[in-house]
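Quick entry between incubations.
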Amino acid sequence: MLQTKDAVNSTTIRKAIEGRDGAMLSGFYADDAVVRVIDRNNPPSKPREIRGRASITTFWDDICSRAMSHKVESTVTEGDRLAFTEDCAYPDGTRVYCATVVELKNGRIARQTVVQAWDE
Amino acid sequence: MRPIETRYARSGDIRIAYQVIGQGSLDLVFVPGFISNLDLHWEDEGYSRLLKRLASFSRLILFDKRGTGLSDRVDAHALPSLEARMDDVRAVMDAAGSGRAAILGASEGAPMAMLFAATQPERVRSLVLYGGYANFHRWVMSRERLEDFIETAETAWGSGATLQNFAPGRVDDPHFAEWWGRFERLSASPTAAVALARMNAGIDVCGVLASIAVPTMVMYRRNDARVDPAASRYLARKISGARLVEVPGRDHPIWTGDVDRIADNIEEFLTGARAVPDIERVLAALLVTRITDTAKLGDRMWSERAQRFQQTWRLLVSRHGGRISGLHGDTMLSRFEGPARAIRCAAALCDAANDIGIASAQGIHVGEIDVRGPPTGLTVRIAAQIADHAGRGDILASRLVADLAVGSGLHFADAGQLAPDELDQPLPLVRANSEQHLEPACRRDKPRANKPSALTLRENEVVALIADGMSNASIAAELRLSAHTVKRHVANILSKLDLPSRAAAAAFAVRHPGPDGP
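Done. Structure below.
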């Protein structure tokens, strides 16, 4: 896959997220990567876990199919770890705010934790 | 949490009401059946449970089809075609910012969902059909039966009369039947309902099934009362790669019966992962209330009084912090977090039954039950057996209930044993007194008073009449007091003399005759 050649850094992540490019995003992950999502329905003691690149691809395809805006606000890089915050909005005005930390292994995302809060 | 917001999408000149709930990564659009009303759904326990379950893993998008519920009314004499109505799905998805969604079509919503999946595959991630069909006359109703249904709708729309066509298992549930009447009235006018029924009768989407290419699950209830299960088997055969899932039950609406099983299947199909099983079990006190007296009252009066009692039961259970868990004919099940609440509620129900003029018998047991769904299993069966064992006006409980209620100030007397088949050992029972001490917290600090002098003159009169075997109502008439006042006197008497029951008070009066004799 062409996308897997993209280096994972704050610039490419911003480009993929803001461009709602699910294929590019999926290409950032290691085959056995794990994404953990913590939100109101998935509390810290029972986070939602998406395991493996196939499931993560579906996850990003679903999210990127939404006609919404994503804005990566600030990014911090420290060795093999990268953190960023994201401000998102649906056409009806509902806003979502996410804070994400990713851990890289051999240049791919091996583990990602997303904490998100929705307007409700 | 803010209340669920209802918004309006524009589909041509028509406004379509929709709601969006949940924070999941996938979008799920629910296409309802015959009629719907977005606001009313949340008032039914089963409906709101189903929607909350679906919204736990998705961003759930709900809407009322044009002509129904909160959406714009349309000319009932010129209702739009299935194709035009199908376009409402697209309009709602556009408004909600959903590019691609899983579509759940239930009942009459299924043909619409299939048509949408066949014509707009790029907008459909996957398809879930529940209780659906491709041809109305073949699998739902013959032309003759449709005319009968329309006749019922013409003459009795809004009264809940159509319930028997959809959920015969809920006809005897007055609360649900009343909700169904509101559901009819608030979802469509009589003219619209008849027009909708006639339009649905024209549904035939057999021709599009082969063009559905998205992952599809077809689900149906084994003994569905409205739509022939063969309809789902046909869909599964004709839609390429469809998964067929049968669930037990006969009530047709997707939000009745075991909604957790429905939601489990949908979640697994759409996310690839089974719902995290809530194998969590909690300790709960279960109260089974039986009412009897049909023979004495005659069927008609019995039915009126039973209905009154059931209304009171709902009120009292919720007033005592409990939850309604089931109503099966003349047997009612409610659930409480603590045994003392269950007993106090049972006492209040016993009084209510007396006031209404029917006999009640109640059983209470504590044990573990599944957190999810209505209580089932051993704890429920034992509570029911205790209630069966209870006599007229009795509140029987397992000894365990009394042990756990220590410190609550409630009083119990031994009541023998019960030997359920499912237990190795007989279960010791206690009888709870419906006239309980009023200020239990202070009771243990009080010196034990066991002389008639501890009682007021009026209380001595009351205890003497109790010894004569008189009921509270008779004592009230004799002393020209209200029944409530007599009840309070009895409770005070038991409290002051530290006696567990009315019978013990009678025995006390015999042992300690007052100046005028007992």
